[in-house]
Amino acid sequence: MQSLYLPVGLVLSFIVAWWLPEPGGQLKDLGLIPWMVVTIFLVNGYQTNLKELPKDRQFLYALGAAGIIALFIAPLIGLGVTQLLALPAGLALGILVKAAVPPTLSTCIVMTQLSHGYPLWALIITVVLNLVGVFTLPFMLGLTLDSQGSLEIDPLPLLQSLVLLVLLPFLAGLALRRLLSFNPGHAILRYLPSTCIIVTVWMALSSSHEIFQALELKVLWQIAVATWLIHFSLMLLAFIASRLLGLDPRARIAMLFTVSQKTLPVAISVLAALDLNVPIGEAILACVLFHFLMLFTDSLLEPRLRLAPISQ
User: Fold this and answer.
1) What is the pTM (predicted TM-score) of this model?
2) Is residue 311 a part of any domain in this protein?
3) Is the pLDDT of residue 312 over 60?
4) CATH number, domain at 247?
5) Is residue 21 a part of any domain in this protein?
6) Would you give the DSSP letter of residue 52?
7) How far, CA to CA in Å, does 52 sit from each of 25, 49, 116, 133, 189?
8) In this structure, is residue 312 part of a structural domain?
9) Taking phi first (over 0 means left), then psi (-120 to 50 degrees means alpha), and beta for anything else, what does residue 247 get?
10) Rg of the chain's alpha carbons, rounded to an integer?
11) Best CA proximity match to 124, nearest among 67, 177, 74, 180
């Protein structure tokens, strides 16, 4: 049941956003997506055992490898994929931006936790790569977009967002674990992060319904192929790096999901900051569908990667 909950929920979010987009768009306009992220990290903090905190050089090596793959190699893979598929300008822009952004702020941690990997590894790698990614994005996009246009990203708002949406809720969850006796493995806590992801994707898809409903089959196929080529290439590189570093299976799970998943909010923010003569609507569509296909693919893959539970 739990293994099917996320993929089935994502399919339902896709269907509802297609046929009835107004409620999801209205909820997004009310600012509910940040609260979904806060809930996810609050639960993650409550379910995290600090005894799993990485304390050795191996984690630092893994963090360095994750940063190189996710922030520097991934944009180059995205460039190769867009050239290989000869994508039109709008779709190519969306894929290139999506490939260059840092890891997801929540879903890679949820996937790691569901697979019984090390969620604390995934959390720390995610936070560090999002902070570093603020400075790598302009450089890597300058290379891949081959444009003279300027891209300016202010790191302070992103840093503030990470503190408010990620670190503070996570620390609050850790504190609540010490104060409460509620079972961290309770069904409510097991399903709540996945539910938040499903609702977030539904709201994101609903808010882009006009472009979404004009989708052509050819365009969908191009985005799907680009998504899978980039996503599985990053997973393969993460797997190779984890084997070379001698990581144990639980650390390897954290590397696989963290390195291969890309954040949607940062991608949309970057597109809004760009001043290029290309169809931004197509680029946003590419980012949203890339995100949906990425999560749906990993939700199907996660049960196959799942390890034995970590004792609480």
Assistant:
1) 0.78
2) no
3) no
4) 1.20.1530.20
5) yes
6) G
7) 39, 6, 12, 26, 19
8) no
9) beta
10) 18
11) 67
Q: Per-residue pLDDT for 144 more than 50? A: yes
Region for 31 from its dihedrals, namely left if φ exceeds 0, alpha if ψ lies in -120 to 50, beta otherwise: left
DSSP conformational letter for 311: P
Mean pLDDT for 192-204 is: 85
Q: At 172, which amino acid appears?
A: A
Say which residues have a Cβ less than 8 Å from residue 46's Cβ, sequence separation at least 6.
173, 174, 176, 177, 180, 182, 184, 189
The 3 state secondary structure assigned to 230-291 is HHHHHHHHHHHHHHHCCCCHHHHHHHHHHHHCCCHHHHHHHHHHCCCCCCHHHHHHHHHHHH
* Residue with more model confidence, 228 or 200: 228
Count of structural domains within the chain? 1
The domain in which residue 284 lies consists of 2-305
122 within some domain:
yes
Mean pLDDT confidence for 131-136: 81
pLDDT at 155: 58
CB-CB neighbours of 309 under 10 Å: 8
* Contacts of 99 by beta carbon, 8 Å cutoff, 6+ apart: 74, 75, 77, 78, 79, 81, 144, 230, 262
